[in-house]
């Protein structure tokens, strides 16, 4: 697979993490959502942010891209405070909600977002990358839900981001396309892009280079899939997640 979206060279030291969370606390509506999260997410790899719905994944991603008010702690991204002006062209963000204009075609959307960057990727190559080359002239509002999500992904890729934050990018995609998207994610990582990919589907955990497993706003594990399996004493990542939950409950009691 070709990789048309090579990131720009990182300006920070190569051994510095792409994302650094330090005792991160978020409260909303009087309720604590994230409970003192601390983690270092490496550069140039696919890190899976996994956990059940309501575990705080989207809130954490909003912190990373700098649009979430935090109670205390800090988030640094590519060596700078999250949300810094300098990061705007270096971080791509795909939300769960569609982030494209429904009354424009796929190509018009991608070309519009390309106009916002100094060195965008080629729009037609990016459209082909997400498997929409046959739908490039189609109005987004006439696409299926899965195609709509892929159009949003193309717009996130067009700026050649150094960090790509993807919130549930494979929801609603058929198995073949899901596999193609994961191949694309790893191709981007090999080219130097850092990816943070959220999912509530544990069968995607094994596709990641690193895992950040969360539940109820707390980190259960942060390691490679192999290390998580070893720590839980099982080869099944679903079972590993359950065992980690039970251990946490035993400690809490």
TrEMBL record:
InterPro entries: AAA+_ATPase, ABC_transporter-like_ATP-bd, ABC_transporter-like_CS, P-loop_NTPase
Domain ABC transporter: 19-241
CDD domains per the UniProt record, alphabetical: ABC_DR_subfamily_A
Coiled-coil blocks: none
Any one GO MF annotation of this record: ATP hydrolysis activity
PROSITE patterns: ABC_TRANSPORTER_1, ABC_TRANSPORTER_2
Assigned keywords, A-Z: ATP-binding, Nucleotide-binding
PANTHER family with a match to the protein in the record: ABC TRANSPORTER G FAMILY MEMBER 20 ISOFORM X1, ATP-BINDING CASSETTE, SUB-FAMILY H, MEMBER 1
Protein name: Multidrug ABC transporter ATP-binding protein
């Amino acid at each position: 697979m070709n990789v048309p979206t090579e990131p720009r060279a990182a300006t920070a030291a190569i051994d510095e993490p792409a994302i650094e969370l330090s005792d991160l606390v978020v409260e909303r509506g009087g309720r604590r959502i994230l409970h003192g999260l601390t983690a270092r997410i490496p550069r140039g790899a696919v890190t899976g942010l996994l956990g059940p719905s309501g575990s705080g994944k989207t809130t954490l991603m909003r912190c990373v891209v700098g649009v979430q008010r935090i109670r205390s702690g800090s988030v640094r991204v590519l060596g700078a405070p999250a949300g810094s002006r300098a990061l705007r062209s270096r971080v791509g963000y795909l939300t769960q909600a569609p982030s494209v204009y429904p009354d424009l075609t796929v190509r018009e959307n991608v070309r519009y977002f390309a106009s916002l960057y100094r060195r965008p990727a080629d729009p037609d190559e990016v459209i082909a990358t997400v498997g929409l080359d046959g739908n490039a002239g189609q109005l987004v509002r006439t696409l299926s839900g899965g195609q709509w999500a892929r159009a949003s992904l193309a717009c996130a890729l067009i700026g050649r981001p150094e960090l790509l934050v993807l919130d549930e990018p494979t929801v609603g995609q058929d198995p073949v396309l899901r596999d193609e998207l994961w191949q694309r994610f790893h191709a981007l990582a090999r080219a130097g892009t850092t990816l943070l990919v959220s999912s509530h589907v544990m069968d995607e955990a094994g596709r990641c280079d690193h895992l950040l497993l969360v539940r109820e706003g707390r980190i259960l594990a942060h390691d490679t899939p192999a290390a998580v399996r070893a720590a839980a004493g099982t080869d099944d990542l679903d079972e590993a997640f359950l065992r980690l939950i039970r251990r946490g409950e035993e400690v809490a009691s």
